[in-house]
């Protein structure tokens, strides 16, 4: 083919068109799915026709999320469980399978909100994310794998955080938890790839969730400025000109859970609005 023809094809190429995610009627479990990033992910799966189970400990928030998912025309299951325990993780898996008959997609999103430094944290506090978030992801994956193999394959997506890569002043618990979660993700992806199961981790940056107003007020007090100035100081860290929101995270998660991402596994992908100033290659 001559160069002129190649050039003309390049000029007329319009892209891949609509990407079909093929998520309709899939059985999905989202931990921490009753608020924030987890809720946005659960809603996005529901919009694609997936049946969604969500896990949390706030009964009112769980019920509100259930009603929202049902309104989107799919089945919803809410599970009140403590994922800091092996029993709670087993309950989440078993109730999802009992409700939907299968489990094909696991989104490990549940976490805690703790910060500090080595000298301000006890041993338990420093390791809270490791013993909570990461260990829960490990237990949930172990429980989900037999069901995914039975289904002929599956998707596991863990929600980490950019503290795994870029330590901040009080992010020791997050850094330990998210970096260990990323390491687990890579190991597991190697083990289960031959079974048609992919495992990836998404690292959100600081995100405008329901915790944002309190964080914004604390920032304003710390800087001695008004709310608008405090928010501008946050936004200045994002090259896209705004703070990342939960709805920005969900599309990446859905793609990784789709048939189109069958060759994407063992990867750590940041959705951070460009705020992480490092090159990962």
Compact description:
The protein is an alpha/beta fold. It has helices at residues 3-12, 36-47, 59-71, 86-100, 123-126, 128-151, 172-192, 212-223, 227-235, 246-257, and strands at residues 27-31, 51-56, 76-80, 105-108, 154-159, 197-204, 268-271.
Give me the secondary-structure topology.
Layout: H1 3-12, E1 27-31, H2 36-47, E2 51-56, H3 59-71, E3 76-80, H4 86-100, E4 105-108, H5 123-126, H6 128-151, E5 154-159, H7 172-192, E6 197-204, H8 212-223, H9 227-235, H10 246-257, E7 268-271
Parallel strand pairs: 1-2, 1-4, 2-3, 4-5, 5-6, 6-7
Q: Would you kindly provide a written description of the structure presented here, covering whatever features stand out?
A:
By secondary structure, the protein is an alpha/beta fold. The protein has 2 domains: 22-207 and 245-271, NAD(P)-binding Rossmann-like Domain (Rossmann fold); 209-243. It is built from 10 helices and 7 strands. The protein has helices at 3-12, 36-47, 59-71, 86-100, 123-126, 128-151, 172-192, 212-223, 227-235, 246-257, and strands spanning 27-31, 51-56, 76-80, 105-108, 154-159, 197-204, 268-271. A 7-stranded parallel β-sheet has the order 3-2-1-4-5-6-7, sandwiched between helices. Strand 2, helix 3 (59-71) and strand 3 form a beta-alpha-beta unit. Helix 2 (36-47) packs parallel to helix 3 (59-71) and helix 2 packs across helix 10. The longest helix is centred in the middle third of the chain and has 24 residues, at 128-151. The radius of gyration is 20 Å and the shape is globular. The protein starts with a helix and ends in a 10-residue tail after the last strand. 43% of the residues are buried. The model is unreliable at 5-14 (pLDDT under 50).
